[in-house]
Every structure is written in structure tokens, then in C-alpha cells.
Design brief:
The structure holds 2 protein chains of 2 kinds.
Chain A (H helix, E strand, L loop, with lengths): L4 E7 L2 E7 L5 H8 L18 E4 L2 E4 L13 E3 L12 H8 L9 H14 L5 H8 L10 H14 L5
Parallel strand pairs in A: 1-5
Antiparallel strand pairs in A: 1-2, 3-4, 3-5
Chain B lengths: L1 H5 L13 H5 L15 E7 L5 E7 L1 H5 L3 E5 L25 E2 L5 E7 L2 H10 L1 E6 L6 H5 L13 E8 L3 H7 L2 E9 L2 E2 L7 E7 L4 E6 L4 H12 L6 E4 L15 H13 L3 E4 L2 H7 L2 E2 L2 E9 L5 E11 L10 H11 L9 E9 L13 H20 L3 H8 L8 E2 L5 E2 L4 H12 L1 H13 L3 E13 L12 E7 L5 E5 L8 H13 L6 E5 L16 H28 L6 E4 L2 E4 L2 E7 H9 L14 E6 L6 E14 L4 E12 L6 H20 L30 E6 L15 H17 L9 E2 L3 H10 L3
Helix pairs in contact in B: 10-11, 11-12, 11-19, 15-16, 18-19
The chains are: A alpha+beta, B alpha+beta.
Chain lengths: 162, 774
């Protein structure tokens, strides 16, 4: 059998270990070694964005990253790390209320990309939202209700003045 | 009435979907999420040639690689699709001595995981003797350069139709035009790739197949018939499916191989397509040429249309539905669209080629027919220097003509044809747009307005979902009063768990959250056709409605008996039954259920024990026509050849709406696919028959920045079937390519451009605009 390497990943705030082959993608390790099946693999070509996770808060294609290449201490956030124990986040709730998903396969990647955008730019306008989501392909919704949902979630990301 | 207020009307309500929380939180389980102990993974070796004889297959090296369990060839899996006699050619599950398109499965490798399976696939040595590929449709029809299959003519489907008096009417018309239209290959591209997992159960001897399919019962029948597995030993389970769009309505060779491997190895086996495989070997669609002649009058009235419809069906008829036959024979049935064009002559030729088989993609014939029909109308308008809206008014079927039998014999039930056009023109602000267009042209900017009025044949007796014209719903009220419904639908994101529950909720008076709708499991669902051809809403919804009504009647019989009231005075709502006008005289559905299952001596005379039934609904019409009008506004930039769709209006009439928000979501998605169809998406084969568009960097899908904000208005012309619903899953992709194509033609009218090919590429636009000398 092929040699495996033990790695430690910081996923959703937990330190997890896995024995991986050097060629295994981060997406495959998250899914098949760590059981985090909410990360979806749509193209393995870095185009569709379904496998998007956050690395230190920035969207990244987990299908294009080798798990062994994730630097020590990088915080990985998957869709499983997005929602608090008690139900959905305001962004997720907005996506439901605005019918921002149909088959739902691209949805985890959309949620993470939109979360990263609004965390950084809580005032993002429609053009900016569309631009930020342009790396996440959706074949079902035509994007309009996703854009509406992200716009509706903006207030939840506005920081209160101290 | 007060009682009415107690009963929320779910039908027609903008209810948030019950499916969403699990999908939003990453808890939904798609095919590749099916993992069980001992599961093996399968990878295919696919043909690198468009046409070749196989001289030798050497699997020796592959078999010795670590983690490899088996390497299968045709002899391990000796099955063919189309064993029945409809066509002379049926695709083998794995290549049988020859290959007929690039991407055809030749060998299957089963290993501990996909990485190892792909390693071993690379170690399989196959010796081919390449043959001249057949790639050009017109030549193939003439048997040039050769026959694709030695034993069969290239033209595998031919049909012609002519209205009586056609030639005279055509000749007598004062004006004529000709045009050739070309649609280039496209495909559905669900974001979740196809996949199949087969799990033999040694305890029961049964085999469970997880499949990303739209038609679970049809797939069970297919495995049973083709592989001779007794049907009761097969269970098909459709997990969450990440988009289908018709493409997942087929049974594919890969499905047979996965099942055969699992049976042979007595292990769970899974295969999930990668994206390159998807683009190579998910059914393709829309490979059509139409040679058209049109006869018309100075008023703009179109008298007669002649069309030679050709489609490249690829190497085999896809199973169980050849897209080439569907795109042509059904396009010929709706080629006159929403217009009263009395004379039609069509001739159809579907040919084999050395390309991937053509199957279904949302709309199937609709986007083809619509592109031709709307292209014809705009050509007539251009020739007569009339407004395209005016020529549509002149030709539109009038309300008093319903039910309308078109020139191909299809009968349209009533719709809002002219009204939808006028509403759409209002919605987009047509006259103002024309004014802005003139102003823009003066400053060298090319805006275009494209109109597309459409008909959408829905709820058909036969479709890509099969020839099952009905749908079924089993409905059970559990002993605690909760409700379980099961249906044979295969939803791929349409939200049937929500919409079917909405339909049922109104009929039996329970809250939406007390109903669960199961689907896609042949062990729980009654036999049904599945999802495809815009049938789930009208036919599936009809079945849910009938089941709900029958259950409601049973509940009322209980309540009348228990409350000592007349059946006709019982109302249902909020989980209760009560006597009209006396809400205090009530009994809860939970109490009724307890009697039905446990205190059975109190069951009213004549009723069976329990609260469980199956209803099937077969519409009386063989097809019901939705309709509407799309208007696209584009800006074309001649120097770069880029097209921006900047505004978009849709007026849609699909009869009664179950959930308007879901309908709008469907429309948005179809229009986005129309943007792709019109200006982005093309599967390109090179001169050797190699597919050159095998990644999503080559086959371009619309992104969030490519799709305009859409305005939607609904008109409601109820169908005469149960619930008044018409289907609507496809209309938006039927109408939108033509709307955008016509808008591009309109924008480039100063250059004399009339779009005749989809998609329109930047290169086309640069060529058209550079040549004209402007």
C-alpha cells in the first residue's frame, strides 16, 4: 500500500488527525477521512466552487489543495462549522426565506463564500455580491434569490459601534 | 367565514421549503456521501478514439496493483441497453469489440478507493485500430464517410408530415424566405456529477442501488429487464440529487456496470463521475440543423412553414430516450409555437455519429422549436420592416380559437397567449426601450430587445421520464396523527417535499410540519413515472391532491360518525375536524387516528382499519400547454464580441401555482441556463472526434455576473385537470435562448445580422460586425 502521513488539521475549531496519502485532496480528506460530508466536490478542476472551505476566513477550493499542504495552524472552516448548535445562522435563514437554493449541492460553498464576503464587507452592494459569488456555480437558481438572500443577511454582519 | 380563517390555504402560498435546513447546514446526503463498511470504488477506462476496433485488452498489470479487486470487461457485464427492438443498435454496458465515441466505457476497475481504481485504470493496456470517424451530420445522413454501425443505416429515425394543401398554400403566398438554423451540442451539467452505488444484502438476497436518477421505478424496471434481476429483489433509492435537468432521466451503461460489479464481487461498489467524465459521457443535447422555408403575407401573417429537421443522435440511441428523436419529432409538433400558422411540412432525419449519444436536457424539443419559430417571426418582421411585437400580434392564436389544434395536430388547452405578450411588453417598458435603443445607437452603442413567446407542452402521457402517464401517491396517517406520503417522483431540487405537502395539507387539514413526503425509494413509493417533462407538479401534484381528498373524505366520515353530524357539515383544518359553524364540536385527527389503529371497534361502519391509501392520477389530456412571453434586453459590444444581458422580463402562465416562489426559482434557473445556451455553452468535437471541452474552463456555465435580474409576472389560466396546475419546469429554458438570440439580432440590425446559430460566440459577433464595413 501507498505510504501515508499523519497530519493534524484545525477544522471548525477542533484539532483532528488523519493518516493521509500525500496526493489526497483536502476535500477528499475532509469528506472521507474526517466525515465532513457537507463539503461537496463538483468538478475537481477548481471552477465550480462547490468544495469551497474557508482557510483563516478566506474562501479556498478544497479540491485543489493537498491536505498535507495545509500549513500548521491554518484554521479550516467547513459548512459544518458554520451553523451554531441551535439551528441556522442569519445568512442560512435568509437563504431559506429567499429560496436561495434548489438542489442544494452548491449551497455549502455558497454559504461559506457569502459568509466570507459579508464578514469583510457587510455593506457589499448587489454588484459586489455577484462578483464575490461568481466563483461559485449554481445551475438551478439563476443566482437572483441567492443574491437577494445575501443582501438580506447584511444587517447581521454589521458590527455594533463599541 | 370564521372557519375559513382557521384553515391556512397552503395551495398557492409562498411557503419556505422543508428541504432547506439540511441542505444549508451540510447535513443532506448526496450519492457520494453514501459510505458503508467494505465499500469499493469503481473507475472506468474510456475510449480515447471516436471510432476504433479493439484488438486487445490487457488487464494483467492493472489486476496486480495494490488494492485492486477486479477488472471488468464486456464478458463480465454482457448487457446491452435497447435490447428491445425499437432501434437496430443497443449500447453495450462495456465496449464489445469496438468503440464508437470518445468517452465510451471500455473497462471497469474496482479497487479499495477511487485513487487506487484510477491508478489501475491507467495501467490497463488496450490496443485499438482507429477508424475514420463519422462526425458531420449532413454527410452522415448520406452514409458518408461510412456507416457508424456496419449493420444499421446512419439515419435511424425518419418521419415526415404535411398538412393537406400545403404545397398550394406555400406557392400561393406572396412572400417567401429561407433560413438554416444550427444548434450546437450542449449538456445539462448538474453541479453534482452522476453516480451509482450498489449494495448487495447477503441476508435478504436483495440489492439496493443508490442512484442519482429522476425515475426510480423506471430504473428498477431497467435493471430487472436488462440484467434479469427479479424486480422484487431490487430496491432503488434516490438520495439527495444535485440537479438533473433531464440528463439524469436516463439509465446509463455505467449504472449496469456498477450493479454487475457489486453482484460479482458481493461487495458494495460505488462510482461517481468526475467532471471530465460528465462532459464526455453525460447525455448531450441540442445537436440540430433545421433547413427552413417560410411563406408569408405583407401583413406579416405567416401562412406556411417547411422544415427539414436533422439531429445528430450520437453513437447510440440513449436509453430509454433518444434525445435526437425527442428534439426533432416533438419539435415538429410544436414548431408553430403560440402562432396560428395553418400549414406545416416537416421532414425529420436523425443520424448516428461517432459522438456521445444525445439525450434529454431541460426543454428537449422546446428550446429547439422555439429558436426556430421565434427566429422565423423575427425574419418576417425584418423583411417587412415591421416591429417584431406587431408581427407576433398578427400571428398569435386568439382566445376564441381554444382548444386549438395546431398544424401538426397537437391540441392546445386554453392559455393567455396574446395577454402574456402584452404584459411582457408592459413589464419591460417596450416603447421606452425602443427609444433608448435609438439614442444608444446614435452614440455607437448596440442595445437589442428580443421577444420570445412560447408554448410549453407539459404533463405528457409520455416523456423522458418514461411512458407512464400517471403518478401515484400513498398516504398514511400514523397512529399519532402525523402524516406520511410517498411518491415515485425523483426530485432534483424542485422542492417536492414542500409542494406535495402543501397540496396534501389543504385536503386533510393538517399543518405542513406534520406531513413528511417520501420520494425516490421504490420500497416505500408506489409505482410511478418519476420526474421529467414538467410532469411532477401537474401529475404528481394531481396524485397528491386525489390521495389527500380521499383521505379527507375518510376523516370526514369518521368525524361525522363521532360528532353525530352530517358528512357534508364536517370541515377539516388545523389538525381537527369540526361541525360547520360549531367549532367547539370537534375531534382531532389524532383522536381519529387512535380509533383507526387501536380502538378499532369504534371505526365507523364500512371503513377499513387504519388510515392508509394509494391514489393514482392519470390526466384526461395527453398534454397540457403552459405559455408565456420572455423579453431580453442585451448590449452587444462589437469590438470585443461580448454580449451582456442587461434586463429581462418573464410573463408565465402555468395554470394554478402551488408555490409561486418555487415557480419563480424555476424560471430564474431556466433563464440562466438560457443565457448559457445563447452565448456561452458549446460542446466542441475536433476533426478527430475528440471532445475539446472537457472542463468547466472550456464549457462555460453562466456565473452570477452573467445573469440579469429578472422581473416575473404570473398569469393563471387553470388547466382542466386536478388542481388546475400545468407543468412549468422547462418553459423558462424553452423561451430564453430565443429571446436572447433575437435580442442580439435586434442589437446588430444595423449590420444586417440575424442570429441563426447557438451559442453566439464573441468570434461570431466580431466576424459579423467587422465584415459589414460599418
Amino acid at each position: 500500500m501507498v505510504e501515508t502521513t499523519r497530519i493534524e488539521l484545525l477544522v471548525n475549531g477542533e484539532r483532528l488527525t488523519a493518516d493521509v496519502e500525500p496526493r489526497w485532496s483536502l476535500a477528499d480528506v475532509l469528506r472521507h477521512q474526517l466525515g465532513l460530508l457537507g463539503t461537496h466536490v463538483g468538478c475537481e478542476q477548481g471552477v465550480c466552487g462547490a468544495c469551497t472551505v474557508l482557510l483563516n476566513g478566506e474562501p479556498a477550493r478544497s479540491c485543489l489543495i493537498f491536505a498535507v499542504a495545509v500549513a500548521d495552524g491554518v484554521a479550516i472552516t467547513t459548512i459544518e462549522g458554520m451553523n451554531r448548535a441551535e439551528g441556522m445562522t442569519p445568512l442560512q435563514t435568509a437563504l431559506r426565506e429567499h429560496h436561495g437554493l434548489q438542489c442544494g449541492f452548491c449551497t455549502p460553498g455558497m454559504v461559506l463564500t457569502a459568509h466570507a464576503l459579508l464578514t469583510r464587507e457587510p455593506e457589499a452592494d448587489e454588484g459586489r455580491i455577484r462578483e464575490a459569488l461568481s466563483g461559485n456555480l449554481c445551475r438551478c437558481t439563476g443566482y437572483q434569490f441567492i443574491v437577494d438572500a445575501v443582501a438580506a443577511a447584511r444587517p447581521a454582519y454589521r458590527k455594533e459601534e463599541p | 367565514m370564521a372557519e375559513q380563517a382557521m384553515r391556512p390555504q397552503m395551495m398557492g402560498a409562498r411557503v419556505a421549503r422543508v428541504e432547506d435546513p439540511r441542505l444549508l447546514t451540510g447535513q443532506a446526503r448526496f450519492l457520494d456521501d453514501i459510505q458503508v463498511p467494505g465499500m469499493l470504488e469503481l473507475a472506468f477506462v474510456r475510449s480515447p478514439y471516436a471510432a476504433a476496433r479493439i484488438l486487445d485488452i490487457d488487464t494483467g498489470k492493472a489486476r496486480k496493483l495494490p488494492g485492486v479487486h477486479d477488472v471488468l470487461t464486456f464478458s463480465d457485464c454482457p448487457y446491452r441497453l435497447w435490447q428491445r427492438t425499437e432501434y437496430q443498435v443497443g449500447q453495450p454496458a462495456l465496449a464489445d469489440g469496438g468503440v464508437f465515441y470518445v468517452g465510451e466505457p471500455v473497462v471497469a476497475v474496482v479497487a479499495d478507493n477511487r485513487y487506487l481504481a484510477e491508478d489501475a485504470a491507467e495501467a490497463v493496456r488496450i490496443t485499438y485500430e482507429p477508424l475514420t470517424p463519422v462526425l458531420e451530420m449532413r454527410a452522415a445522413i448520406l452514409e458518408e464517410p461510412r456507416r457508424v454501425h456496419a449493420g444499421a443505416e446512419n439515419v435511424f429515425f425518419h418521419r415526415s408530415h404535411r398538412t393537406p394543401g400545403f404545397e398550394q398554400a406555400f406557392a400561393d403566398a406572396p412572400l417567401h424566405l429561407t433560413a438554416t438554423f444550427r444548434l450546437n451540442r450542449q449538456t445539462a451539467v448538474s453541479i453534482e456529477p452522476r453516480g451509482t452505488a450498489a449494495l448487495p444484502d447477503p441476508a435478504s438476497g436483495r440489492i439496493t442501488v443508490y442512484a442519482s436518477t429522476q425515475s426510480p421505478h423506471r430504473m428498477r424496471s431497467d435493471f430487472s429487464e436488462i440484467m434479469e434481476i427479479p424486480e422484487h429483489l431490487l430496491r432503488i433509492v434516490v438520495p439527495e440529487v444535485g440537479g438533473g435537468f433531464g440528463m439524469k432521466a436516463n439509465t446509463y451503461p455505467e449504472d449496469l456496470v456498477v450493479v454487475a460489479a457489486a453482484i460479482k464481487l458481493r461487495r458494495p461498489v460505488k462510482w461517481v463521475s468526475d467532471r471530465m467524465e460528465s462532459l464526455l459521457a453525460d447525455v448531450h443535447a441540442r445537436d440540430d440543423i433545421h433547413d427552413v422555408e417560410v411563406a408569408f403575407e405583407p401583413s406579416g401573417r405567416i401562412v406556411a412553414v417547411r422544415d427539414h429537421l436533422m439531429a445528430d443522435g450520437g453513437a447510440y440511441p440513449a436509453y430509454p430516450f433518444s434525445g435526437a428523436v425527442g428534439e426533432t419529432s416533438l419539435a415538429a409538433r410544436v414548431l408553430t409555437g403560440p402562432y396560428h400558422i395553418p400549414h406545416l411540412a416537416t421532414e425529420i432525419d436523425c443520424t448516428y455519429s461517432n459522438k456521445m449519444p444525445l439525450g434529454a436536457y431541460r426543454g428537449v424539443w422546446g428550446p429547439v422549436a422555439s429558436f426556430i419559430q421565434e427566429g422565423i417571426v423575427d425574419r418576417v418582421a425584418r423583411r417587412l420592416a415591421k416591429d417584431p411585437a406587431e408581427v407576433r400580434r398578427v400571428n398569435m392564436i386568439r382566445p376564441e380559437q381554444f382548444p386549438y389544434r395546431n398544424a401538426a395536430g397537437a391540441v392546445y388547452d386554453p392559455g393567455s397567449y396574446g395577454e402574456s405578450l402584452e404584459r411582457a411588453l408592459d413589464l419591460i417598458g417596450y416603447e421606452e426601450r425602443r427609444r433608448l435603443q435609438r439614442l444608444a445607437r446614435e452614440s455607437g452603442r448596440y442595445l437589442g430587445i428580443g421577444i420570445s413567446a412560447f408554448v410549453e407542452p407539459t404533463a405528457m402521457a409520455s416523456s423522458e421520464a418514461g411512458s407512464i402517464g400517471y403518478e401515484a401517491c400513498s398516504l398514511r396517517i400514523e397512529p399519532t396523527g402525523k402524516v406520511t406520503a410517498a411518491m415515485g417522483l425523483g426530485p432534483t431540487g424542485q422542492g417536492h417535499e414542500t409542494t406535495m405537502a402543501q397540496v396534501i395539507a389543504d385536503q386533510i387539514g393538517v399543518d405542513l410540519q406534520d406531513i413528511v413526503v417520501l420520494h425516490g425509494d421504490t420500497d416505500s413509493a408506489p409505482f410511478g413515472g418519476g420526474t421529467g417533462g414538467s410532469r411532477s407538479g401537474p401529475i404528481g401534484g394531481g396524485a397528491a391532491l386525489v390521495a389527500g381528498r380521499q383521505m379527507g373524505e375518510r376523516l370526514k366520515t369518521y368525524a361525522a360518525h363521532m360528532l353525530e353530524a352530517s358528512f357534508d357539515d364536517i370541515e377539516l383544518g388545523n389538525g381537527k375536524a369540526w361541525v360547520t359553524g360549531v367549532p367547539s364540536r370537534s375531534v382531532s385527527i389524532r383522536e381519529i387516528a387512535e380509533i383507526a389503529y387501536t380502538d378499532v371497534k369504534r371505526i365507523p361502519p364500512g371503513l377499513p382499519i387504519g388510515l392508509e391509501l394509494v391514489a393514482r392520477y392519470l390526466p384526461t389530456r395527453s398534454v397540457s400547454f403552459s405559455n408565456g412571453t420572455h423579453i431580453a434586453v442585451v448590449e452587444v459590444d462589437p469590438p470585443t464580441g461580448l454580449v451582456s444581458v442587461i434586463d429581462y422580463a418573464v410573463v408565465n402562465d402555468c395554470g394554478q401555482l402551488i408555490n409561486p416562489t418555487i415557480v419563480e426559482g424555476q424560471i430564474h434557473g431556466g433563464v440562466a441556463q438560457g443565457v448559457g445556451a445563447a452565448i456561452l455553452e458549446a460542446l466542441r468535437y475536433d476533426d478527430d472526434g475528440q471532445l475539446t471541452t472537457t472542463s468547466l474552463m472550456d464549457y462555460l456555465l453562466p456565473q452570477a455576473t452573467d445573469v440579469p435580474r429578472m422581473q416575473i409576472a404570473h398569469l393563471v389560466t387553470p388547466a382542466d385537470g386536478e388542481g388546475g396546475m400545468k407543468g412549468m419546469g422547462e418553459g423558462s429554458l424553452i423561451a430564453s435562448p430565443a429571446a436572447i438570440a433575437n435580442a442580439i439580432s435586434d442589437a446588430l440590425e444595423p449590420f444586417g445580422v440575424l442570429v441563426d446559430t447557438l451559442p453566439v460566440t464573441p468570434r461570431d459577433i466580431i466576424r459579423w460586425t467587422a465584415q459589414s464595413g460599418f
